[in-house]
């Protein structure tokens, strides 16, 4: 697939450098369905916010999509909608190197290797290999240290949670050369049904004091705004990317009067009116997150593109 690069389609590294300087976070929003890429990009454009569109390996499999389909719809929408804000196309949690290579070929500007279930040394070796490959293609790399829990298994295989060790974080980023690190500090993927969300700010401070790598908070859906903002506003720079997926799908399904998720093909087959109702609900949710949680609205003009 030949990708025509626009100057405002940037790497994750470039996006997070600016966000960290400005003490805000950029939302990494998962559409889960290709037709929901449009409302995410529209929300970013209308709020003048930098934006990240992401999808994980498990989401690709569960919703029946390929990285090439995501890339094609993303780039076409960027062109059709004349999106001008800084935008990243990111591959979230992925374990398969071939999926990572496909995403890079499809025009993703950032990829995440998740080898967090392995012992530290193996996680380092796998993540370093991906970083070397992706960097040779001009693509940023995110990795994970610790284990972020889950309630719905869409992102990860396990619900165990293992907090990130700050000393291990120093070793990890030094040896892997990754651009961003997803840290486990109390949040979880999915809907909070039993435990309440929490963010261990002292652990974040300790990680930040040992390493300058950009920090990522997964499991942003359902986390109170004050927790997110406290994590962003640490003295030496805190969280600069927050992943939000479940809240978007709940908005879509709620607007459609559905409880069960669809496949991507089922979503594409919705009649136009229903689809537009769903897209409006997703756009409203993304806008709310940008304005009230991430405080990234009106920051797009701070980027040098």
From TrEMBL:
InterPro entries, per the entry: Aldolase_TIM, Class_II_FBP_aldolase, FBA_II
Cofactor: Zn(2+)
Bilayer-crossing regions: none
Pfam families attached to this UniProt entry: F_bP_aldolase
Domain of life: Bacteria
NCBIfam families, alphabetized: cbbA
Protein's name according to its UniProt entry: Class II fructose-bisphosphate aldolase
Species of provenance: Metabacillus halosaccharovorans
Source species taxonomy: Bacteria, Bacillati, Bacillota, Bacilli, Bacillales
């Amino acid at each position: 697939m030949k990708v025509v690069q626009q100057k405002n389609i940037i790497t994750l590294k470039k996006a997070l450098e600016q966000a960290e300087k400005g003490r805000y976070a950029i939302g990494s929003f998962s559409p889960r369905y290709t037709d929901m890429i449009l409302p995410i990009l529209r929300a970013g454009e209308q709020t003048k916010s930098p934006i990240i569109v992401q999808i994980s390996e498990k989401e690709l499999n569960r919703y029946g999509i390929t990285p090439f389909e995501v890339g094609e719809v993303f780039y076409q929408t960027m062109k059709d909608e004349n999106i001008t804000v800084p935008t990243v196309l990111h591959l979230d949690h992925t374990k398969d190197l071939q999926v990572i290579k496909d995403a890079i070929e499809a025009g993703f500007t950032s990829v995440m290797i998740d080898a967090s279930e392995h012992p530290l040394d193996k996680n380092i070796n796998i993540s370093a290999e991906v970083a070397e490959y992706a960097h040779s293609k001009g693509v940023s790399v995110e990795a994970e240290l610790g284990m972020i829990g889950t309630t719905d298994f869409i992102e990860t295989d396990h619900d165990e949670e293992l907090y990130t060790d700050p000393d291990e974080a120093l070793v990890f980023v030094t040896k892997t050369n990754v651009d961003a690190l997803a840290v486990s500090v109390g949040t979880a993927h999915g809907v909070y049904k039993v435990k309440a969300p929490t963010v261990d700010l002292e652990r974040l401070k300790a990680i930040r004091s040992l390493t300058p790598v950009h920090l990522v908070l997964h499991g942003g859906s359902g986390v109170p705004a004050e927790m997110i903002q406290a994590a962003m506003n640490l003295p030496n720079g805190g969280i600069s990317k927050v992943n939000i997926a479940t809240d978007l799908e709940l908005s879509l399904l709620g607007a459609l009067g559905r409880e069960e998720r669809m496949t991507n093909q089922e979503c594409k087959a919705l009649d136009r009116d229903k689809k537009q109702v769903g897209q409006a609900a997703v756009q409203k949710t993304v806008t709310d997150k940008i304005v009230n949680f991430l405080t990234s609205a009106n920051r797009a003009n701070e980027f040098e593109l």
